Each structure stands twice: as C-alpha cells, then as structure tokens.
Structure to design on (879 residues):
C-alpha cells in the first residue's frame, strides 16, 4: 500500500468560462505525488498553476470545470465522490494555504476560532485539545507570543505572522497533503525567509506531502523535491529539483533560468560639482500626525538610475509622493535642476509639473479603462506640449513606436485588450509624453512575470540611453536593482540607512540592514536556505534579525 | 473604543442639528397648509369676528417667527403645546378631560404604535434574515426564485389589499385572529398581542422583501472572497460557511436596511391602522391634519423625525460595532 501514490492526476483538462465560452486552462496534465513528497509547481501567471493545485483537491472555482481526466486522492476518485465525501476529506486530510493570508482569514473571527474550526467540525479533536495543539503549532512555527497570538483578530497580526498562522491552521488536522498557493509572494524578503523555513520544517516534521505553487524559481528550489514547469496550461517538463536546476532540458525552462542574467554596463562616476536633476534635501513627511520620513536626502543625476530599495512601509513610495508634490513635506525641500520646487503640486506651474513624471506599479488601475490607448497618451501630449490635430496624432504614434507597439494596431484599443506588460508600456508612453527629464518608476515590474519584466527593464534602459532620462526606481526586488541601477538608496523605517554606487552596495562591508536584505534574497542553489539558516542561527532569522537593529 | 464613542457623539450632535432643521421645515410646511383651525372648526357660518377671536385665543394672530420660537421653546422644555381641538372642546363644555396637552394626547397612541412596531419587528427581522440566508444558500434554485417572487409581490401590493387578504384567510374563512384591533389601555398583554397579530402580519409582508433581499445580496456578494473559499476548503458545510463566515461580514448593509424598515413601521403605517381600526399615532396624525390642529401635527412630525434619526444612528453604531477592526484596534 505504501507504494500507492497519494495523489494521482491523469490527463486532467480544465476549462474556464468567459463570455459563455469555455476556454482551456490546463491541457491534459499528469501529476503524481507520493506520501511525504513536496512537488514544486512553477510557471508564469496564467499558466494554470493555482487551478491545477485546487483541482488536486477536487475543487474548482466558480466558472471553472474539469472537462476530462481523473483525480484520485489515496485511491478515492475525487471527481465522482459526493460533496459530503469531499467535505470529509477537505480540511481533515487535504488542506490549503492561500496566497494572501490577510484576505483568507475571516476578518470577523479570532485566529484561534478559525484554527479549531476544522478539527472540531471534523470531529478530530475537541475544542480545548485543538486549542492547546494550535498553541503548540504556533510555537513550532516560531511565532512570537504563541500563547496569545491566536486570540487576536487577523487585522491585529502582521502579514508574515498571518501566513504562518495559516500554515498552522492547515496543519490542525494533521493532513496528508497541503497545497501551498504562492504563500510568500506577498511578503517582504526578510519575512519570506522565516515563513519558508517554518513551512519546510513543519512539512518535514509531520511527513506531509505538499504541492508548492510559486512563480519564483529560487523559492521553489528551497522547498521542493521535484519541480514541474507549466506553460499556458501545458506541462513543459518534470524532474527532481537538483537535476532541473543543473540541467533543464526544455528551451522554455532554460529561458526562465536565464532571466536574471540581464545587467546594464556600468556608467562612469558622476562628475563632482554636476547639478543633480532632482535633489531631495532633508525631507521629513508625515501622514496626519504619524511621521513617515525622517531627514531623507539623496541626489539623482542626468541619465542615471537611482534604485530606492526597502521593505513595505519603509517610506519609498512616500518619498516619491513628496517629490511629485502629492504629499507636501513637513520639512526640507525638493530641487529640480537646482531650482527649489513648490512643495504642493497645486502650486507648481505646468513646466515644473512636466519635468517630473511617474509610472505606477499597477498598470491595470493606473489606466482609465474607458479611454482608448490613443486617448490616454494624447492627453498629456495636449496638456503639456499643447499639440493638437495631426501633430498630436503624430506625437502619439511616435511614442507608441518608442515603446515598441505598432501604432495602427494599438491606437484604438482599450486597456482591457492589452496584456499586463503592454499596459505597463502604455504607462511608460504616458510618462514620456510630457517629455520629462525625470521619471519615478514605482515598483513597475513587481506585478509582472519575469520574462515580461525583463522586457520592460530593457525598454527603460534603452529609453534612458536615447533620451538621457533619470529614473528613480522604487523596488523591493534586489535582482531588479542589480539589473538596472547606477546608484542605490536603502531605506528602512523612513530613513536612508545607506546610499552609494551599486557596486559598493553589493560589496561588503554593508550596513547591517543592507546585509540582511541582500542575504535574504533567495538564490537558485537548493542548499541556500539551509546554509543561510545555519549561518544566522535559528533564533536570528527574519523578523527577529530586523528587531535587533 | 475611544474613537467609537467619538463617532457616536458626533452623530448625536449631527442628529440634533438635523432635528432643528426638520423643526423649521415642519413649522413652515404646516403653516403653508391652506386654511386654519379657526376656519375649519367654524365652517361655512364663520363670521370674521368669531374667526378673529378664536385666532387670538390660540395665538394664531402672532407673526410666524414669534410663534416658531414660542413653539420651539416649549418643545425644548418638554411642552409640546396644547391641542386646539381639545382646548376648544374643554372650553365649550366646561369639562376638563385631563388630556388637553399634546403630550398627553399623543402618549398612549405613540405607545400603541411602538407596540405594533415591536411585534412586527420581532416577527419580520428574524424571518427576513432567515429567508435571506436560505435564499443565499440555495441561490438560483426554485426555492430562491419562489422566495423572491413571494416577497416582491407582497411588497408590490397595496397595504390595504394585503390586509384584506389576511382578514379573509385568517379572520373570516379561518377565524384565528380578530379582524378588529381595537386595543385599549389596561388590556392584558396576551389579548393585546392577539389583537395586534393581523396588522403585524400585514406589516411583516410589507417590510420582509427589502430586508430579505439585502441579506441575500450582501451574503452572495461575499461568496467570492478568499476567506469564503478558505472556509469551503476546510470542508465546512455550506450552511456553516454562510452563517458563520459570510453573515458576520455582511451585517453592516443588512443593519441599515433593517433600520430603514423599522423607521417605516413607526412613521408609515396609517393605512394599516385605518384598516384594522388600530389606535396608533398614524390615525391621530391624519385626523389632526384634517382639522388643522397644528400643535398635534407638529408634534407628530417631530416624533417621526426623531424616530428616523435615532434608528439610523443606532444602525450606524451597530454597523461600526459589527466591524472587528473598529472594536479591536491594533
């Protein structure tokens, strides 16, 4: 019996409905998982990873159906099983850990009430026993205050801790299988380490089988015994982790592996005495009475990229808001070309406004869904440059060509008809339309897949060379920094902790926080996490390490 | 908790301001009514002298602004004024019935209306929420459609029509409840309850649709949330998913609709009162408008406005309290 696989999916086809038409999501994928084995499921967004993961639980979201194939869990056919039989398995023998713990915990109930619900409803344990077990799991997952954290509401607990609470909840009935659906994607790198380590420990400890879904190769390298690569619903290849990393056989897999190789050539150092395009000088800012920025100063020079890195809440985007004048600073000033800018954007004249442009993280929400691409780009052209009629059209066409989209093909399209990467290109064209000297790029690639993101980075680099633009590149992804930055500014808790040329930043000695940030970025080496944890010592990872500074 | 208290105080202050504005609107509107008490009581044979004398007696000869502040001053001291009709009646017959002030006249009627509203609420609110939950659970099934058709047709029918149907089935064909709801002071609670049953059921039919449909919609709205998917993936029963996981997060809009309907039960039940001869405040209000008994009309309007404001305030506070983020700040 022990030879029998825990999960056996054969020739599974999944379809999703949109506008009354069923479109294929997964095309005949096989999946086998043995007891205690961890399978990494990787691919870009839209590859069907989550849908396939949920199908392994015999579950499909509304508007999705399994059109063909078989899904067996421990010999039970999940596709023909009754709803009652499946309910008996779900939660008890098969558990799920969702991408966003903040959204997947019910805001109306305390964590512990949600934790014990599974065991109590399935009759595995009584309430008291399950609560005690929950506290024990919280302790094993190295949560702070394991005795009382469960008695808080979800909004009172931080993202990384919530993710561990959700892993504990999945463990509550000691299932045979857990589906992890991008559990660390929404977390900062230093927090991610802690969650990865906890998940790996507990899965090993209880010999639980797992399907680990992610788009991050380096993460999957740490977690999985076997890796399966998906591309647009098709399986590309499957192999054990070390083989896959060392010698991928398929072109697509190789291209995924190669993405992180893009790096710009070094530029010569800035001449001393050159006037910076934008200079942030001793800026303090606050939201209401809550101080957010403390004495932030740095310069940005012509034709160069300054990467501002730091974790969520470190004040990166707030600095951008101060530069654009959306949030007038409490103290300090913003200089453009050596001229002091009015603090409030409403007091800046059109030319001052024109010089500073912005590209946003979510191209989806930053483009008006009711306006065509042509209209979106034409607006700043008319507003800032005063062009109308044929001249305006010509300028828009030029801009579309600059961002490598065919004008005749895209001019009349709506944003909803474009892919994520194309939308981000429109965002770039809209910023370029004002003919600025300086563009703030706020996490412009973090919502994109790696291959698409690389395309955007290459485009930005080319535009910089052609137009001698300066970029302030806000990001939390150090691979992006390595690829595009000339100078780096590291922020933490609203302060600049370190700044300098990129090469200095990536070479020790660093400030302790920069060091933590750098060493927390997962690497493709499957032993990376193990080595790192040994290096740091078990009690000194992630949160704990941050707190010590 | 401190900020919840602050919000409550703010709303309360806003409510008082609203009440003040409403009092002006009421006063102006009532004074715009054609004719006045003196004319309507004296009828065709009114001599200008008689009209003038009654007007002088009641203070109607004063300029409107003076009358407004006299009235407002009285209200602030808890004196709603003296009913024209009662005052006249007493002076004509020389007897003092003891119920000459508006407050004394309205109090028992208002108590009756509140009683009917509470009986209705006790039936209608749990009934609608239960129907809404079941409709959400069995959405797009025959049960869901039947519930929708039933509640929508009952809200679309005129109230008197519903009332007569209920009388036909529950009083005439099957004499379960009395068709007349002539309750009076000193009646035993059980008898009062029995007599109020038909009007209460009629009103239940009127208010159910709104609350039930909001419950259904608010729950279904949440069913696509990740935490509902999580609850399903924990293998919980569909009923538990809805009652335990969706309903607590859907409370805010439901509470607001309940408050609106309860306010309606206090202020909008004239027709039902007339059909069942129920001595509530609605009938008194209509009668007073007919004879231009201004103090009573104004007092009724003020009570209605207060009821609206207080119920909405309660709804706001309960919506806030239903949100754990506000109950338990970080």
């Amino acid at each position: 019996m022990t030879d029998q696989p825990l999960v056996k999916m054969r020739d599974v086809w999944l379809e999703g409905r949109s506008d009354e038409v069923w479109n294929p999501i997964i095309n005949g994928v096989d999946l086998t998982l043995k007891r205690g084995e961890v399978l990494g499921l990787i691919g870009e967004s839209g590859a069907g990873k989550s849908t396939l993961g949920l199908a392994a639980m015999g579950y499909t979201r509304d508007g999705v159906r399994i059109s063909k194939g078989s899904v067996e869990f421990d010999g039970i056919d999940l596709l023909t099983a009754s709803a009652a039989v499946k309910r008996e398995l779900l939660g008890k023998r098969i558990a799920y850990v969702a991408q966003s713990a903040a959204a997947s915990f019910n805001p109306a109930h305390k964590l512990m009430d949600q934790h014990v619900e599974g065991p109590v409803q399935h009759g595995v344990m009584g309430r008291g026993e399950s609560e005690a077990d929950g506290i024990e799991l919280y302790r094993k997952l190295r949560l702070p205050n394991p005795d009382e954290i469960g008695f808080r509401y979800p909004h009172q607990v931080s993202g990384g801790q919530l993710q561990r609470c959700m892993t504990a909840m999945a463990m509550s009935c000691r299932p045979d299988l857990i589906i992890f659906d991008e559990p660390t994607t929404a977390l900062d790198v230093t927090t991610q380490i802690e969650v990865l380590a906890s998940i790996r420990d507990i899965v090993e400890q209880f010999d639980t089988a797992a399907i680990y879904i992610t788009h991050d190769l380096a993460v999957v390298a740490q977690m999985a015994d076997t890796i399966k690569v998906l591309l647009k619903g098709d399986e590309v290849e499957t192999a054990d982790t070390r083989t896959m990393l060392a010698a991928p056989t398929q072109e697509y897999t190789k291209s995924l592996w190669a993405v992180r190789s893009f790096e710009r050539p070094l530029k010569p150092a800035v001449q001393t005495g050159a006037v910076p395009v934008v200079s942030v000088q001793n800026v303090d800012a606050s939201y209401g009475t809550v101080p957010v920025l403390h004495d932030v100063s740095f310069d940005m020079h012509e034709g160069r990229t300054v990467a501002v890195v730091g974790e969520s809440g470190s004040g990166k985007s707030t600095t951008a808001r101060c530069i654009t004048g959306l949030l007038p600073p409490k103290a300090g000033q913003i200089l453009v070309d050596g001229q002091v800018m009015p603090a409030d954007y409403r007091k800046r004249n059109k030319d001052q406004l024109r010089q500073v442009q912005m590209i946003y993280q979510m191209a989806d929400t930053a483009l008006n869904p009711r306006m065509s691409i042509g209209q979106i780009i034409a607006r700043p052209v008319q507003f800032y440059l005063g062009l109308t009629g044929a001249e305006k059209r010509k300028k828009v066409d030029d801009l579309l060509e600059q961002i490598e989209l065919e004008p005749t093909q895209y001019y009349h399209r709506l944003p909803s008809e474009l892919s994520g990467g194309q939308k981000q290109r429109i965002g770039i064209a809209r910023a370029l339309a004002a003919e600025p000297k300086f563009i703030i790029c706020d996490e412009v690639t973090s919502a994109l897949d790696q291959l698409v993101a690389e395309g955007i980075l290459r485009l930005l680099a080319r535009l910089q060379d052609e137009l001698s633009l300066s970029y302030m590149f806000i990001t939390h992804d150090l691979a992006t920094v390595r690829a595009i930055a000339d100078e780096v500014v590291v922020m933490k808790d609203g302060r600049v902790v370190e700044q300098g040329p990129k090469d200095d930043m990536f070479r020790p000695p660093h400030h302790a926080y920069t060091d933590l940030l750098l060493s927390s970025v997962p690497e493709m080496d499957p032993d990376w996490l193990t080595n790192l944890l040994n290096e740091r010592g078990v009690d000194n990872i992630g949160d704990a390490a941050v707190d010590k500074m | 908790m401190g900020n919840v208290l602050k919000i409550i105080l703010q709303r309360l202050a806003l409510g008082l301001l609203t009440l003040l504005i409403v009092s002006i609107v009421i006063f102006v509107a009532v004074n715009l009514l054609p004719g006045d008490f003196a004319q309507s009581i004296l009828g065709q044979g009114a001599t200008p002298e008689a009209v003038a004398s009654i007007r002088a007696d009641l203070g109607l000869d004063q300029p409107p602004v003076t009358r407004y502040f006299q009235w407002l001053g009285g209200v602030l001291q808890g004196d709603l004024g003296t009913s024209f009709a009662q005052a006249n009646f007493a002076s004509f017959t020389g007897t003092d019935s003891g119920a000459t002030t508006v407050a004394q006249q309205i109090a028992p009627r208002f108590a009756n209306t509140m009683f009917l509203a509470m009986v209705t609420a006790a039936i209608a609110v749990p009934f609608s929420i239960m129907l809404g939950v079941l409709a959400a659970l069995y959405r797009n099934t025959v049960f869901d459609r039947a519930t929708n058709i039933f509640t929508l047709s009952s809200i679309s029918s005129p109230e008197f029509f519903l009332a007569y149907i209920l009388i036909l089935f529950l009083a005439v064909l099957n004499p379960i409840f009395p068709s007349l709801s002539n309750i009076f002071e000193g009646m035993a609670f059980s008898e009062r309850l029995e007599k109020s049953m038909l009007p209460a059921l009629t009103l239940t039919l009127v208010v159910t649709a709104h609350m039930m449909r909001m419950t259904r919609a608010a729950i279904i709205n949440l069913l696509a949330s990740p935490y509902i998917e999580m609850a399903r993936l924990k293998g919980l029963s569909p009923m538990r998913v809805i009652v335990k996981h969706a309903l607590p997060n859907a409370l805010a809009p439901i509470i607001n609709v309940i408050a609106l309907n309860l306010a309606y039960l206090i202020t909008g039940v004239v027709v039902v009162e007339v059909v069942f001869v129920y001595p509530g405040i609605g009938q008194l209000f209509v009668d007073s408008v007919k004879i231009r008994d201004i103090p009573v009309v104004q007092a009724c309007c003020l009570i209605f406005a207060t009821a609206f404001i207080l119920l909405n305030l309660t709804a706001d506070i309960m919506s806030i309290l239903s949100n754990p983020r506000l109950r338990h700040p970080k």
Remarks:
- Residues 92-97 of chain B have pLDDT under 50 and may be disordered.
